[in-house]
Design brief:
- This protein is mostly helical.
- It folds into two domains: about 140 residues, no CATH class; about 120 residues, no CATH class.
- The chain has nine helices and no strands.
- The radius of gyration is 24 Å and the shape is globular.
């Protein structure tokens, strides 16, 4: 039954997220052409070939790259917002009547939506990252037909120089994303469980409040342990924790918080939620 719920949630999200992925692909191609135009303009020699692109075209390419960079930076945020909007509709609005009549436990309902959202977040993150490499390939290529070759070359070069700390940082980012997901969905469910009117407003305020409190605590904890490590290394003879250990501790703390917010989600889902 979990697999069936996952398929349903995944298809429901695809209705809004597939167009977003198409937009990311279009932005990547547009950015590649803009970067290629800028690169060819910078490399051309007017005195020898007389084929230099006009300065206005160069300026247009730079402006296009700025706009394209802003669009790609905002793309992941748009995907995340669409995912939580879908969660709200399936758990709080009229659609929730169907959701809670399914022969499945609240824990599996939450797990299904988390898995579907997680897969789409990974797809969106991979799409945005790939789009960034496509744009970067435009600065290295000499013509559009070199896109694939330069794209894979840049990925191999980036992967060959990745230290252990980078992998741990990526793991921390992944665990933090899981924690943030359950943190936000928990706030949405809690907001919908305590009021019958203005649930959207209450849920948004709770999301902002919980994110602020948890973010502040994690920031203070992270900064304190980081600067403690620097202080111990600089002013004492005690061996301080290394960067790898610091990242592992951060991963453990975020994992514990993720488990706690998961429990909150399941507990609230087991009780009656005020459905619109």
């Amino acid at each position: 039954m979990l697999l069936t719920c996952f398929k349903h949630d995944f298809k429901a999200l695809s209705r809004t997220l597939v167009p977003a992925l198409i937009g990311i692909a279009g932005a990547a191609v547009f950015g590649f052409l803009s970067a290629l135009t800028f690169s060819l303009t910078e490399k051309s020699d007017t005195a020898q070939t007389g084929a230099a692109l006009p300065g206005a075209l160069n300026a247009a390419a730079v402006g296009s790259l700025i706009v394209d960079g802003m669009l790609l930076a905002a793309a992941m945020t748009v995907i995340v917002v669409l995912i939580f909007v879908r969660f709200y509709r399936s758990m709080v609005t009229d659609e929730a009547y169907l959701t809670f009549t399914l022969p499945v436990t609240p824990g599996r309902l939450i797990a299904s939506k988390f898995l579907a959202s997680g897969v789409w977040m990974l797809i969106g993150g991979a799409a945005v990252t790939a789009a960034g490499f496509v744009v970067a390939a435009g600065f290295e290529a000499s013509d559009p037909f070199q896109l694939v070759r330069v794209f894979w070359y840049l990925i191999r070069e980036a992967a060959a120089e990745v230290p252990l700390e980078f992998f741990l940082a990526c793991l921390l980012l992944l665990i933090s994303a899981v924690r943030s997901y359950f943190q936000i969905t928990g706030a949405i469910l809690f907001g919908a469980s305590i009021v019958r009117r203005h649930k959207v407003l209450v849920s948004i305020l709770l999301v902002l409040g919980v994110n602020f409190v948890v973010g502040t605590v994690l920031t203070v904890f992270g900064v304190a342990t980081f600067f403690q490590r620097l202080y111990v290394a600089a002013y004492t003879d005690t061996v301080s924790i290394g960067a790898v250990t610091w990242l592992i501790v951060q991963c453990a703390v975020n994992a514990l918080l993720a488990a706690a917010f998961w429990w909150v989600n399941v507990r609230i889902a087991k009780k009656s939620v005020n459905i619109e």
